[in-house]
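Hypothesis: this fold can be encoded by more than one sequence.
Test: take the C-alpha cells below, design a sequence, compare later.
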C-alpha cells in the first residue's frame, strides 16, 4: 500500500480516468496506487536501463513471435476485480505479454490486464518496500514474473509467484517459464 500524507486526497478509478482525459495530461506518466495519484518522472539512467532491457526482450520476442514488449504502457485489472479502497492503475517500465494472452491492441486507455512479465526500475524517490509492494500486486493479479531493477546497487530481483532470487554483477537473468531461452547478463542492463 502506498503511504499517503493526511493532505493526500483519495482518488477512485473514475476520478483518475477523468484526470487522465483532461487537456495537458496526455504526456504525464501518472499511476494510481491505492487511491493516490503518483507521477513517474524517469531519469536518463532509468531510460537507458529500460531501453537496454526492452531492446533485448523485443529482439528475442519478435524473432520467435512470442507476443508484445512495451515501454511505459498503463495496465490495470478490470474494474470489477479492483479493491475500491485500494484502486490501482500501473505503468510498468517494461512489459511483456505473451501472444496467448494478448488482447486486441489497445489504442486508448489502460490495457485491461497485467502483463506476463513486469519490469520496474527503482526511481530515486521509491523505497525498496514500494518496489516489493508493486511486485506483489503484479504477481497476485496475473503477472507470472517481475523483475525489480535497483540501479544504485546494480541489483536485479526476480520474482515469480513461488520464487524470489537476487542477481548481481556477472549473473545472468533468464526468462524462466515466461520466456524460455531468454538470457541477459545483469551488467548489460546497466551498460551505457
Amino acid at each position: 500500500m502506498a503511504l499517503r500524507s493526511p493532505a493526500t486526497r483519495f482518488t477512485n478509478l473514475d476520478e483518475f480516468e477523468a484526470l487522465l482525459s483532461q487537456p495537458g495530461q496526455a504526456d504525464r506518466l501518472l499511476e494510481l496506487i491505492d487511491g493516490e495519484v503518483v507521477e513517474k518522472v524517469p531519469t536518463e539512467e532509468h531510460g537507458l536501463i529500460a531501453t537496454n532491457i526492452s531492446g533485448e526482450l523485443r529482439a528475442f520476442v519478435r524473432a520467435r513471435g512470442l507476443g508484445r514488449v512495451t515501454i511505459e504502457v498503463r495496465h490495470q485489472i478490470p474494474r470489477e476485480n479492483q479493491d475500491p479502497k485500494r484502486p490501482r492503475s500501473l505503468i510498468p517500465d517494461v512489459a511483456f505479454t505473451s501472444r496467448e494472452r494478448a488482447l486486441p491492441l489497445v489504442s486508448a486507455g489502460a490495457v485491461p490486464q497485467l502483463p506476463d512479465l513486469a519490469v520496474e526500475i527503482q526511481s530515486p524517490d521509491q523505497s525498496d518496500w514500494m518496489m516489493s509492494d508493486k511486485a506483489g500486486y503484479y504477481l497476485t493479479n496475473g503477472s507470472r514474473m517481475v523483475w525489480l531493477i535497483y540501479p544504485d546497487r546494480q541489483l536485479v530481483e526476480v520474482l515469480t509467484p513461488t520464487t524470489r532470487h537476487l542477481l548481481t554483477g556477472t549473473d545472468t537473468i533468464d526468462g524462466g517459464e515466461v520466456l524460455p531461452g531468454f538470457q541477459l547478463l545483469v551488467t548489460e542492463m546497466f551498460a551505457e
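The chain has one domain: 42-189. Residues 1-6 have pLDDT under 50 and may be disordered.
Hypothesis status: open.
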